[in-house]
Write a structure and sequence with these properties.
The complex is a heterodimer of chains A (about 230) and B (about 150). Chain A is of the alpha+beta class. Chain A folds into 2 domains: about 35 residues; about 190 residues, Alpha-Beta Plaits, CATH 3.30.70. In chain A, about 25% of the residues lie in helices and about 20% in strands. Chain A has 7 helices and 9 strands. Chain A has a 3-stranded mixed sheet. In chain A, a hairpin with a 6-residue loop joins strand 4 and strand 5. The longest helix of chain A is centred in the N-terminal third of the chain and has 22 residues. Chain A is elongated. About 5% of the residues of chain A have low confidence. Chain B has about 150 residues and is mainly alpha-helical. Chain B has 7 helices and no strands. The chains are: A alpha+beta (about 230), B mainly alpha (about 150). At the A-B interface, strand 2 of A face helix 5 and helix 7 of B. The structure holds iron/sulfur cluster (2 copies).
Chain lengths: ~230, ~150
């Protein structure tokens, strides 16, 4: 049988297209796009009540201890602004800076090795340090600037809601437990009976940089005393 | 390269003698008063920390006020610590005669938020050699906050 040049080219083209579709469907991202799995009943989030926070940094230290974070880096920071008002009646405002566990996480999207991932069970954005090659793409991509290279493992690190260190044992994240004023609330966004959801339904809250489309899961309850800040 | 040579020893003794010789006449009346406090307050009256540096020349009555009728009834002597009958503001005001609140706030922001709520003496100690507040590490610093701010579970 004679195969014309035209037919041959057609055949090769079809073969190549087939191979490339096959390749695309094998990446984990495409997997989740093409065949949506049954949604998990768990989606962890956190609220920081800036009215209750006193800026004591107990959360920062508890995290350091539990997750073995060396001195020169940190998974969580409490940013302090102020003083506001006239002496001797002054106040400060505090805001938690840590991983927002974005639903559309830029860090995960740029990670070339799949080390940065979203845990489907819990919605936690985590790092598989065995896979991380330390290329720092995620650090550049994170709009919240909460990632760093861990000086000991030389891999990317950040808050993971104490996934391994505490949640696995049925405990709350270290910062939540350490906070003396109960400024931190951690829980399941999908459970309407959780303290987290109740709090979010009764108090107005905000999230940082939502206009970037990252859909962060760290909520803040804004300080209400003092002047309105622009 | 600091060695005590016979020459410096001589110099020192001359200086000491000179001071001792001068002392009775040079002492001002209030310094004498300050010395009389120590006759009773041998144990709780010694000032040893930075406030005792000779350059400052702080006397008891600089902070505690004039003796008045103390220790008898009707004394207006200024006292500090948990048993003081004076308000936090009154006690703090004594410290603020020398210390500048703005400078304190710059060194340690928590000064500002407690300015009209706590007396300095509720955290600081100035009679002992070392004020515990000056050697806090970050953890002890947080613990200090928690000590008062812990809410019920
Ligand atoms: S806050 Fe940064 S590190 Fe955390 S999920 Fe979002 S992009 Fe990733
Ligand atoms: S432990 Fe609580 S009160 Fe202290 S800084 Fe952290 S969030 Fe604020």
């Amino acid at each position: 049988m004679q195969v014309s040049k035209r037919q041959f080219l057609k055949g090769v083209g079809a073969l190549l297209a087939g191979v490339s579709v096959y390749g695309a469907t094998r990446t984990p991202q495409a997997n989740s796009l093409l065949q949506p799995e049954k949604e998990s009943e768990l989606k962890y989030a956190m609220v920081h009540d800036e009215n209750a926070c006193i800026g004591c940094n107990a959360c920062v230290q508890a995290c350091r201890e539990v997750n073995h974070i060396p001195e020169d880096v940190t998974r969580v920071k409490i940013e302090r602004k102020g003083p506001f008002g006239e002496y001797p009646d002054q106040s400060y405002r505090f805001s938690r800076v840590s991983c927002q566990h974005c639903e559309a996480a830029p860090c995960v999207r740029v990670c070339p090795t799949g080390a940065a991932y979203i845990d489907k069970e819990t919605g936690i954005v985590a790092v598989n340090s065995d896979r991380c090659v330390g290329c720092q793409y995620c650090i550049a991509a994170c709009p919240y600037q909460v990632r760093y290279i861990h000086p000991e493992t030389r891999t990317a690190d950040k808050c993971d809601f104490c996934q391994q260190s505490r949640l696995a044992q049925g405990l709350q994240p270290a910062c939540v437990e350490a906070c003396p004023t109960k400024a931190l609330t951690f829980g399941n966004l999908k459970d309407p009976e959780s303290d987290l959801v109740k709090l979010l339904k009764t108090r107005p809250s905000y999230r940082a940089k939502v206009d970037l489309g990252t859909r962060p899961k760290l909520f803040h309850i804004q300080t209400i005393d003092g002047e309105i800040m622009l | 390269m600091c060695q005590i040579t016979p020459c410096t020893t001589l110099l020192l003794s001359v200086l000491t003698l000179g001071l001792v010789g001068l002392a009775p006449n040079a002492l001002a009346a209030d310094e004498l008063a300050s010395r009389s406090c120590i006759k009773c307050h041998k144990r709780n009256g010694q000032l040893e920390g930075i406030h005792a540096s000779p350059g400052l020349a702080i006397l008891c009555q600089d902070c505690h006020g004039p003796k008045g009728s103390h220790p008898k009834k009707g004394s207006t002597i200024m006292t500090f610590g948990p048993d003081s009958p004076f308000s936090a503001q009154q006690r703090g005001a004594v410290c603020l005669t020398c210390h500048d609140h703005q400078a304190l706030g710059e060194v340690e922001w928590t000064h500002n938020v407690h300015a009209n709520r706590l007396g300095c003496d509720q955290c600081h100690r100035l009679h002992p050699e070392a004020d515990p507040m000056l050697s806090l590490d970050t953890q002890q610093h947080s613990q200090l906050c928690i000590g008062c701010h812990q809410v019920e579970q």
